[in-house]
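Worked example 2:
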Amino acid sequence: MLRQYELVERVLEYDPDADQAMLNRAYVYTVQKHGTQTRASGDPYFSHPVEVAGLMTDLKLDQETIATALLHDTVEDTLATIDDIEANFGPEVARLVDGVTKLSKIEQMPENERAAENLRKFLLAMSEDIRVLLVKLGDRLHNMRTLHFIKKPEKRQRIARETMDIYAPLAERVGMYEYMREMQLLAFEQIEPEAYATITKRLQQIREHDGGQVDAIALDMKHALAETGLHVEVSGREKHPYSIWRKMAERHVSFEQVTDIMAFRVICDDVADCYRALGVLHTTWQFLPGKFKDYISTPKTNGYRSLHTSLIYGKSMRVEVQIRTRDMHHTNEFGLAAHWAYKQGDRPDGAVGWLRDLIEIVDASHDAEELLEHTRMAIYQDRIFAFTPKGALFQLPKGATAVDFAFAVHTDLGAQTVGAKINGRHMPLRTQLNNGDVVEILKGQNAEPQMSWLSFVITGKARAAIRRAVRLKERAEVADIGQKLYDEIVTRVPAKIGKKALREALKRLEMEEADDLFYAIGAAKISDRTVMEALVPGSTEDMAEEDDEWLRSGKSLSIRGLTPGVGYQLAECCHPVPGDRIVGLRKQGEGVEVHAIDCHQLATGIDNDWLDLSWGRRSRGAVGRLHVTLYDRPGTLAEMAGIFAQNAVNVKSLEQTQLDHPFTTYAVDLEVQDLAHLTRILSALRASDSVAQAERA
């Protein structure tokens, strides 16, 4: 553990003007506050914040960050408060400590919700000041180094999984590859202990029998480059066990089949030498096509710059080579932290592009699982590059589609997307993009995100935005139903209801807006009796308790203008179509389910609130289901398909449900305009010699 004077000296080495008194106070404060607390290892608890502060000095971070590292657990684990921190160390340190604190008050939440809420607050704090992330990554790295002291294996697994899913990818996104690799390695040891032990043992065996092969290859490369006048540093290493295991899993191969276990790094003086070195290596050894990547001309979003290539050394050995300058190497290992200046007024923008996307996801996510899902999507890498027609470059995950690209450019553009041109050709929105594609997004004035897009978009930003738009539309349409029901409830109240009565009712119900009340009515979260009593207190006293859902006025509610699947659901049991007499079952939290009046399933909804519904004018389009029995002979299925084509109907699904020679029965789902359209199709089927029987399901 670092002693007090050692920590201060480390800071003074790179920042001679640092406030020594504040650093000394912070060190003493954390020692005093943590007192006799101990860690699972048996060490004094204050050794942890001191070691985290030491990690921050390795990154040459400013004095406020060092103080934050020393104090980051005091609010959570001691009697200290944020106000105490502010009084002793100023508002900036207090704000940083508040952002890094683990927020133990949410421990009572379920596991996934606790993780999500922690992540939500962490991301919001991080967006205000990136130093919150840097301290948090240092905190997590030191915790991982001491994870083996925790006795409960399930707790070790949980922490390791959280590190692998969230913190290691976050380290990668800010370019801190040293942190990322160590976190992955330590987490891998806990999550897959057998695989870790096996791969580690095999690597040890290779080291014992290779006779210094790594050093020999590095020396060969250095000589080849020196002969052309290039003075470079070449170092070689084995890839770490997690990297090898991931390749084995992705390629479905054994350890013996992973050929590029060795990786080499060439450090040059300047960018021109990097490209010269690449040329020398490619002419000296055969390179593998498709394995060359130029991250110097096109850096990664986290600022990573390097040339990557793979060579065949000797007869069959594949080796990976990275070529970069010294400045690039420093940035690549420590990423955003390498750019952080400790002098006031010379600080980089913490809200970098990917971080702004994460904050959008936080705002758009509906619940804990959504937030975790979308965030994991947003922070994982493995990227492709695509361009706008004007040449703007966007990085996306592999498998991203034109819709993902639209949302990456701007959330509003994604929401208005109606089509896409990829490399000048009109292509379906679900088309997956390739490296170098030029994507032009076509937009419409009244367009809006479609629920069906969720089946093919893969970026967290796109999924969060689509789900949010669909939820807002659903809320608006459920509120529309609720307003119609409210208008009906008002007619049964023994008083004239105006705006004043509604305002008073909202206060009694502890609601802010009339839309909140309408939504609660439409979603069956509040009973008619409760609404009436809120509007006119005492108005339901003479009503029997069991009359909570009394007969309505008989006036049907129109569902015109609402969207099937959003404002209401068409029941799968009876497949009602426009023209059918319909009723609705209003289920709490599930919206309205629309049934044909003669549906047998209505008996099971006896405890639900029934609504008299009508389709409204010009209601068009629904899926009707038919049961069609054909004679089992050649050509009958084709004749049925011909009838569908003649009647301009789209077949959604066709399933054989029964084979009883000489008959075959099919369940057919058809997209029809209305009841008259469906009736014409039934008449045409019954008139055919190929059809034995045709009925609605």
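The CA atoms of residues 364 and 465 lie 6 Å apart. The domain at 4-191 is CATH 1.10.3210.10 (Hypothetical protein af1432).
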